[in-house]
Amino acid sequence: MNPLPRPDLRTRFTPLWHLLRDEKRWPLARLALLMLLTAVAEGVGLLLLVPIIDQVQLGTASANPLVNHLVQGMHWLGIPAGLGGLLLVFLGLVAVREILRFQRDTETLRLQTQVIDHHRTRCFERIMRAEWVLVSAKPHAYYSNMLITDINRIGQGLRFALNALSTLMLMLISLVAALALSPIMTLVALVSVLVLLAVLGKFRAQATALGHDLSGSNRAIHGCVQESLNGLKLAKLLAGETRLLDRFRHGIADLRRRQLQFQRGSAAASAGLQLGGATLLVLFLYGGVRIWHVPLAELAVLALILARLLPLFSGLHQNTLQWLHALPAAQDILALQRTHRIAAEPAPPPAGSRWPVRHDILVDNVSVQYDARQQPALDRVRILLPAGRITAITGPSGAGKSTLVDVLTGLIVPTSGSIRIDGVLLQPEQRLHWRRAVACVQQDTFLFNTSIRENLLWARPDATDADLHEALVRAAADFVLTLPTGLDTVTGDRGVQLSGGERQRIALARALLVQPSLLILDEATSALDAQNEQRIATVLERLRGQITVLIISHRSALLKRADQVVELEQGRVRTTIDHRHPAVMT
Ligand code: ADP
Fold first, then answer.
1. What integer is the mean pLDDT of 130-152?
2. Is the CB of residue 443 below 6 angstroms from any atom belonging to ligand 1?
């Protein structure tokens, strides 16, 4: 177990408030009122037992002022304070309490689901809108664990915390009733309970530490599932299924071990509380009879209250332990929201906004330095992309080609230097506007598991079937129209029901539907056969003069068609060959 510092009271309960603070005030107040009323109904019911026992015990009357007030209240309401009347009122109180309890539990559940859905959606939104540098640096398992498992843990934790709050109110009211009957005994009981609480502090710190470990185990399982599914083909080819299975089993065993460890600690705390409480109760009863000489009816009720306080106190402690166990998940979720809000991309432009390129796009002395690297990924790179022309970027792996694409799509802001479109500086806050004017086809094409039509409409939701047909023809993907179900053909998960070349050409049609000012083909043909590559090269040829194209490639069929070829090496421009004026410029 990690040696984590013991969280103080503020660290333990501030996240609870942060989870609740976006909720409307009235439902929160109503829930608090329901908790309080349920507790009051219970407390009054307990006090009413004193006159009832008095009645049973030769009809004597209690001298306790609070009990007397209760009896007077009944007279005032015209209810006879005989045994029958008292029992009737007692029954009525139990009924009211149960109705209130039902309402309270329903409200608690509603609040719990509402809070969780709100935070789950907010996390998702913040992830979607955050800067690419931040999101791309996190493993997918981190996010899926947060959005699915951790948020559910918080849901459970929140319910336990609310239960703890209602138990606390019930305990306070019961204590008031007990105070009215015997202040000395109640105060002694209170001090004893506080001592018990201090003794059990270890279990509370342990619950939070185990909660941290549980987060780690959950993340490991999510990571394992995701990697196993992504690498399943490779695992099968390398006969590595057993290894994946072992890793999964190990992850599950680790998770269960930690859960069991928490349950054991929690059960031990509960047993300690019950035993300590029972010892106190026995001592009190002895003291009540032999030392303080409390009247029998009051002593009986006091014993009843203390006996009732015991499971309540134990429940309060167990609920608090459960909240503390979920606390690390709550802290992680709140931290995720905070960091991703700070790293939010600028606001998106209005729908349909365009950014035409009339003359050129200039990559003007751009440098990019990743935090984790000593060498810059791009070092004062200067490339001019003339409008309507095809520029190819080539160079060995690690030369900075993908980084250049990320800068040109506005996914990352250069550390120094800038992008100029027709001489106008692309300001960081304009990146989303510019991105709408850029379309990118990557090597690992992503198609959603839905119809080809739906996939194409992602690019332009208002496109007609005629627009889709035109884009497919332009992208040499008109084979789609000859499929038995045409545009309604479902691509399969990640497009697996289509060949690589077919997927790439559909992706190209999707990119063309955007009517981009800049079309980027990022190693888009690297995995294709010569025939499919030739098809795409022909498409590019036809686009010359219409769209500014940037291709990242090593393949000669594409490089041959470029108007200029820029070679990158270790983040710098090594050579630029202008095919229109074929002289090497270094
Ligand atoms: P290429 O696409 O030509 O293979 P990249 O642009 O991917 O080159 O990478 C250029 C350099 O920047 C490499 O040294 C790579 O390790 C580093 N790099 C790329 N992305 C990141 C990142 N997100 N964080 C840290 N370093 C990175």
1. 92
2. no
CA of 40 to the centre of ligand 1 (A): 65
Q: Quick check: 335 pLDDT over 80?
A: yes
Query: How far apart are alpha carbons 488 and 472 in whole angstroms?
Result: 14
CA triple 410-413-417, angle to 5 deg: 110
Is residue 132 within 6 Å of ligand 1 at its C-beta?
Answer: no
Task: State the Cα–Cα distance between residues 139 and 224, nearest whole angstrom.
Answer: 11
pTM exceeding 0.70: yes
Q: Can you give the pLDDT at residue 499?
A: 80
Superfamily the domain 360-578 falls into? P-loop containing nucleotide triphosphate hydrolases (3.40.50.300)
Question: Does residue 353 carry a pLDDT above 80?
Answer: no
For residue 530, the number of C-alpha atoms closer than 13 Å in the C-beta half-sphere is: 2
- Among 309, 233, 224, 222, which Cα is nearest to 273's? 309
> Over the chain, what is the mean pLDDT?
86
Ligand 1: which residue has its CA nearest to atom 7?
402
Compute the distance between CA of residue 237 and CA of residue 153 in angstroms, rounded to an integer.
Answer: 37
Write the residue with the smallest CA distance to atom 24 of ligand 1: 370
Buried b (16+ CB within 10 A) or exposed e, 356-377: ebeebbbbbebbbbeeeeeebb
Structure tokens at 190: 């209170």
Cα separation values, 446 from 426, 499, 523, Å: 28, 13, 14
Predicted confidence (pLDDT) per residue in 40-53, tens digit: 888 888 777 777 77
CA distance 300 to 284: 11
The per-residue pLDDT for 585 is 42
Report the side by side order of strands in the sheet with 378-386. 378-386, 360-368, 416-421, 424-425
Which helix (H) or strand (E) element contains residue 393? strand 390-394
Atom of ligand 1 nearest to the CA of 371: 25
Least confident of 141-155, 266-280, 570-584: 570-584
CA distance 495 to 498: 6
| Ligand 1 near 185 CB (within 6 A) | no
Options 1.10.15.40, 3.40.250.10, 1.20.1560.10, 3.60.10.10; CATH of 15-342: 1.20.1560.10
Whether ligand 1 lies within 6 angstroms of the CB of 396 is answered as: no
What type of residue sits at position 91? L
Q: Could you report the per-residue pLDDT of 444-492, keeping only the tens digit for each? A: 788 888 888 988 998 888 889 999 999 998 888 888 888 888 888 887 7
| Ligand 1 site, residue 398, Cβ cutoff 6 A | yes
- Enumerate the domain spans of the chain: 15-342, 360-578
What tokens were used for 149?
Answer: 């498992």
CA-CA distance, 179 to 190, in Å (whole number)?
10
Q: Which atom of ligand 1 is nearest to the CA of 136?
A: 23
User: Ligand 1: does its nearest atom lie under 6 Å from the Cβ of 402?
Assistant: yes
